[in-house]
Amino acid sequence: MTCREANQIDITFLFDKLDLKHKKTGCGHMAKAPYRTDENPSLYLVFNRWSDRSTGEHGRTVDLICKMYGLDVPNALKKISELMGSAETKLKVKNPTSPSQITITRVIDGINHPGLQNYLQSRFIPTIMSNKLCKEIHYTNGHSSFFSIGFKNDLGGWATRNARFKGCIGKQTISTIERDTDIFITEGFIDYMSAIVLNPNVANCTAIILNSTMNTKAAVQRIKELKPRRIYAALDNDDGGVFALKKFMVNFSDLIDLSPRYSANKDLNDYLKWKMKNTP
What's the CA gap between 156 and 175, in Å, rounded? Predict the structure, then answer.
C-alpha cells in the first residue's frame, strides 16, 4: 500500500475496525482523540482529514495512524494494511464530501429559525445581541441541507454553530471586532456573547475570537499589529484552552488570564449557564 492509497481511506472506516466510537455531526464526525486523555470529544473527522480542536493538530489518514501508534510512515502503512485486511485490493474509498463542496444558499440578517433561537436561549444569549452580531446561514453539502448560526471571520468565512454541530464554512481564521485599545480574547463567538452578558463593558473592548485554537498563531500576529493597552483572555478550561493560553503568555507576559474566575466550569458560556440557573 502506498501513502497516496492510504490517504484515500475514510478515517471513520479505520475507527470502525478499531472499535473506536465516532458520532455524525454536520459535515463530519466527532470522536475522542485516541492518543491522549480526551473527556470531551474534540477530534473532528471529515473523510480522510482530521483536526484536534483542543491542540490544533491536524492531518490526513496516515498522519493520524502515525500519531496514534507512535509509528513512522512505513510502519503506519503496514498497520493500515493490517486493518484493511483482504480488502486492501478493494480499498474502502468513499466519495468525500469535502468542505469545498459546501454551498451557502442564504445568509439572513438576524436569527429567525425557531431551532436556532431555542439553542441560543438554552445558552442564555439574548436575541437582540445575537441578531446584531450573527447571521443565519443556510447551506448545502452534497444532497443535504443545513442551517446554523454564522459568525463572520476576517477572511470572509463563517464560524458556524447549532445544537448539533460546530464548524467552519469557507476559509478558517480569527474574527476581529475593533473597538477600544483593550483586547478581549475568547475561543468562540458564543463565549464572546456570554462575556458581554456577564460584563457589558466587554462590548467596549476590541474582540479577538479564535474560532478554533488552531488559529492562535494568527491571533498573536493580529494582537501585535493592534498594539493594545491591556489584553484579557477568557479561554476554555481544557487542553485546547491551556495550549492557547501558553502561546499567548509567551508573547504577551502582561496578559490578564480570566479563566481562574470560572475554574469550576468548562468555558465562559458554561459559567454563564451555571450563574443564571443559580442566581435567585
Answer: 9
Query: What are the tens digits of pLDDT across the range 187-245?
Result: 999 999 999 999 999 999 999 999 988 889 999 999 999 999 999 999 998 878 888 99
146 vs 26: CA distance, rounded Å: 8
What is d(CA 119, CA 42) in angstroms, rounded to the nearest whole number?
20
Report the percent of the chain where pLDDT is more than 90: 51
Q: Beta partners for 267?
A: none
Q: Rounded to whole angstroms, how far apart are CA atoms 101 and 277?
A: 41
State if pTM tops 0.85.
no
Residue where a domain terminates, one of 149, 172, 195: 172
For residues 177 and 274, state if they share a domain. yes
Burial 171-190 (b: 16+ CB within 10 A, else e): ebbbbbeeeeebbbbbbbbb
Nearest to 83, CA basis, from 24, 1, 154: 1
Q: Tell me, what CATH number does 71's domain have?
A: 3.90.580.10
Longest dimension (CA), the chain: 65
3-state class percentages of the chain: helix first, strand second, coil last, to nearest 5? 40, 25, 35
